[in-house]
Write a structure and sequence with these properties.
335 residues; mainly alpha; 2 domains; two-stranded antiparallel ribbon; 2 strands; disordered N terminus
């Protein structure tokens, strides 16, 4: 059959035209659906922002009561520690502490209402929290235990007042506050600033710094495997809030080691970390064998992630840390 003898009916010709237009039709349909999706995203973002702003307004109205309740919990937990550790009670002004907590959480809720990203909020609030931390530990570093628990309890009470659907998003902002109070981050930054950019100790810390949370998470997951039935005063290790606190503690131990390396002495651990642990862990029913497990796993992670010459900067301070929490100091049956 010759091609010139082939003919099409009008109906068949229309079908060919439609077929020729299929790529255009598909592109138009995809564009239409993409615009709908973008519209849905904008509406969802707007809804999230409105919900966040409404929640923040509600929680701000509770801040005064929240701060008072948090101090009552802190005092119930640690009042006997003032006597045991011979801390001057004049250094712990509950009104000043609750006022500072009120202001910080007001700022946090404002950031949440505006949907400022948590990393940006962390940068925004870092100096204020660093100043608060320094103010309270200036005369006695052990006071940080009271301050950190006051802020921690404030955040936990606010979280309990938050609908479950919004707790995950708000908890990220609250973790920023906990991190800056429990960890000597500003002290680490100040110590780092005194080193030349290519100083080997600084480079060792810079190498492992971005791995901090990854290392902490891996350690906590391993501890959970080793202690599947372990329970502290507030619940099991696999409880989401306890897991978050455990990861923070594993991060805290790392930051204190950084400070030791950058300052070239062990004073940060001796004066702050050790008293803090002695003050809090027995009260929270955290056993010393679990703490030692955390430290042992931290040592394994450091050596596996750094070159030997870089890991060497950690060794003397890590060994001192281990010795301070060893069975000779805290037998397994010690409380």
């Amino acid at each position: 059959m010759k091609l010139e003898n082939i003919s099409f009916s009008p109906e068949e010709t229309g079908g060919l035209e439609a077929a020729a237009n299929q790529p255009f039709s598909q592109a138009w349909a995809k564009k239409y659906l993409r615009k709908l999706a973008e519209c849905d995203d904008r509406v969802e973002a707007l809804n999230r922002s409105e919900i966040a702003a409404e929640l923040a307004t509600t929680l701000m109205q509770t801040l005064r009561t929240t701060s008072v309740q948090a101090w009552a919990k802190t005092e119930a937990l640690l009042s006997q520690e003032i006597i045991r550790h011979q801390i001057d009670p004049q250094l712990i002004d509950p009104w000043a502490v609750t006022k500072d907590a009120h202001q910080i959480y007001q700022t946090a809720l404002s950031a949440y209402a505006q949907q400022i990203s948590p990393p940006k909020f962390s940068t925004w609030i870092a100096k204020d929290l660093g100043d608060i931390r320094q103010k309270y530990i200036a005369d006695d570093p052990r006071v940080i235990g009271f301050i950190s628990m006051q802020f921690h309890y404030s955040g936990q009470i606010l979280l309990q007042l938050t609908p479950p659907t919004q707790q995950p998003s708000l908890s990220v902002y609250l973790k920023v506050i906990d991190d800056h109070l429990y960890m000597p981050l500003q002290r680490a930054y100040q110590a780092a600033a005194k080193h030349a950019y290519d100083a080997p100790p600084l480079q060792a810390v810079q190498r492992i710094l971005p791995l901090c949370t990854e290392i902490a998470t891996k350690i906590v997951e391993r501890v959970m495997q080793l202690y599947p039935d372990y329970q502290c005063s507030t619940g099991r290790l696999d409880d989401p809030n306890i897991r978050i606190s455990s990861v923070r503690d594993a991060e805290m131990f790392q930051v204190y080691l950084w400070v030791c390396i950058l300052e070239n002495n062990i004073s940060a651990v001796q004066q702050e970390l050790f008293p803090l642990c002695v003050m809090l862990y027995p009260r929270l029913k955290v056993r010393w064998d679990l703490v030692r497990q955390l430290i042992e796993l931290l040592g394994i992670e450091i050596h596996s992630r750094l070159e030997p010459q870089q890991a060497a900067y950690f060794v003397p301070y890590y060994q001192s840390l281990w010795a301070m929490f060893s069975p000779e100091v805290f037998p397994d049956n010690a409380s």
